[in-house]
Amino acid sequence: RQMCIRDSTNIPPHNLREVIAAVVRMIDNRVNEDRETSLEEIMEIIKGPDFPTGATILGKRGIEEAYRTGRAKIKVRAVTNIETMPNGKSRIIVTELPYMVNKARLIEKIAELVKEKKIDGIVDLRDESSKEIRIVIELRRDAHTEAVRNNLFKLTELQTTFGINMVALLDGRPQLLNLKQLVNAFIGLRREVVVRRTRFLLRKARADGHLQEGLAIALAN
Question: Is 190:53 a contact under the CB 8 Å cutoff?
Fold first, then answer.
């Protein structure tokens, strides 16, 4: 069981343009300059995960550790803004959520904490989301805005931890790979696919060629 947990992969999503740029750089360095690409060079192109729901990764240490070793934990925090209302009260506006956080359950959790008085200072909570996320948390006039926001980060999924575990099947067995090894493995896979496809097309072309030769002989006679 411990082996299964250790080997279960959890690779965060990345920006496709950055990934392809890294792939092209590795191929160009190998073909044009006959040299290997360093991990540092790849990390200059792929700067970190790119979560589709946005949010902010706190610090670079976790990202660098994951890219160098294949395993690390990163903290992901929702994007929030403080707005002052016409009546002088403040409100916290949430516009981006950490990856895999369910918005409805998050709102329920905040309401539950307010009801249980584990978070003080919130007087209203509503979801104004349309195509974009907008959760409005209105505060009491005398509430300490930063204290409320920090409590929300601490007690709810407005801040989460994402455990990166870059395990992939390589040579028929699961292996923990760093960023360079992952990109290298992808290039190897694509090369294998292209070679197999080309060999298939070549066999098909040769077979068609024999058929055409036979038809030409038949027509000549």
Answer: no
